Amino acid sequence: MSIEEIPQGAEVTIIPKAEKKAKDALLKLGLKPLKDISRVTFRKKNNTILAIEKPEVYRTQGGSYVVFGEAKVEDLTKRYQEAMAAQEAAKEVNNAANAPKEDDLATSIQKDLAAASLEDKKAEAEDDGEEVDATGLEESDITVVMEQTNTTRNKAVKALKENKGDIVNAIMSLS
């Protein structure tokens, strides 16, 4: 068969005579060919791999193997670094997709501030402006609670009465 007779696009493997003789000798010795193996790798001490793609593998009766094919050197550390770089890139893409946008962040801050001011207005509305009876409480206790919690006098008096004059618990209840 000449080169002109080979159709274009066909995969053709040319086997040297010496390799063909070696394979015939192995078959005569009783080695069995293994068909389902697509890749064979050998690891060296310095994390270097010799890889044979699409090998021809023969097995002896004792469990040894004979492999034919073109060995290519692969560096495990290089493959590991490439994998880590790809993983980091995937993390960055994922973080960018899940991170809140600046507009969303500003909107949420404005909503929080509006809710806080609404709560303050409700608290002031509850405070009516009426004087609360402060009998049995010392004026210094009321001013301490007012200063520590930044509240009105009426709220400080109510908190002190609810906590039976205990300044610490009154401050804690208003905080």
Structure description:
- Its main location: cytoplasm.
- This is Nascent polypeptide-associated complex subunit alpha.
- It is built from six helices and six strands, in the order H-E-E-E-E-E-E-H-H-H-H-H.
- With 175 residues, it is of the alpha+beta class.
- Among the domains are: 60 residues, Ubiquitin Ligase Nedd4, Chain: W (Single Sheet), CATH 2.20.70.30; 35 residues.
- The strands form two sheets. Strands 1-4-5 form a three-stranded antiparallel β-sheet, with no helix packed on it.
- The longest helix is centred in the middle third of the chain and has 25 residues.
- The chain starts with 16 loop residues before the first helix and ends with a helix.
- The mean pLDDT is 79.
**Tally of separate helices:** 6
Q: At the fourth CATH level, what is the homologous superfamily of the domain at 17-76? A: Nascent polypeptide-associated complex domain
Measured by DSSP, the beta-strand proportion falls in: 15-25%
Shape: rod-shaped
The N- and C-terminal alpha carbons lie at a distance of: 95 Å
- How would you classify the helix and strand content by structural class? alpha+beta
Highest CATH level, the class of the domain at 17-76: Mainly Beta
The second-level CATH architecture of the domain at 17-76 is: Single Sheet
Low-confidence stretches: none
**Topology pattern, helix = H, strand = E:** HEEEEEEHHHHH
The fold-level CATH name of the domain at 17-76 is Ubiquitin Ligase Nedd4, Chain: W
Distinctive features:
15% strand; single chain; Ubiquitin Ligase Nedd4, Chain: W; 6 strands; 175 residues; three-stranded antiparallel beta sheet; alpha+beta
